[in-house]
Amino acid sequence: MKRLAFLTVLMTLSLLGFAQQDWFGFNRYKAANKEIIDSANYPKVVFMGNSITDYWAYYHPNFFTDNNFCCRGISGQTSSQMLVRFSADVIALHPKAVVIMAGTNDVAHNEYYVEPQQVVNNIIAMCQLAKANKITPFIASIPPCAEFVWRKEIRNAGETIVEINKELKAYAKKNKIKYIDFHSEFADKNNGFPKKLSDDGCHPNPDTYYTMEKMVMKALKKVVK
User: What is the pLDDT of residue 152?
Assistant: First the structure.
């Protein structure tokens, strides 16, 4: 319950912060990006995402530091916000690869209603930007979530996530992009996150990230060798 309270408070503060200033989140990693660029100590892989990626680095910082990975997750962000900051938070860091995990907050209507196809289009645009800059994109599925604790009025979240993931998987296959299928690994019969794997039904608990790390490392084996 303590973790659930922490997640809820952090999500609320993130949403309030974006509403007031820096909607795109440019300032979150501005200083860290400058340090990387100035030192030319570029990461092997950047993880672009929302709170699920953000908490990943919070719970398991060694996974990132030990592998020369870089977390660029911002809690509460939609795929549109990630697309806008992609140049500053990914391209400018010259990684070999980027793992893109986006869409949860679009489905939750964190900013406004977004058509599922637009989420797919935003992720495709990020992949195209990565390829244009000789960065190998990896697409991670949207993890399962049947109900949002901060947007309980949203209906059919699980089905919408399945719909988006289906399009992402098809695009990845067609374009020879590695697809990391967290959804199939974790989803229960209701397309939600089982309670033993998530405190709030949307965010992985700390131990669940270990499974995610094994899946990611398997997908990235040619990049991190």
Answer: 82
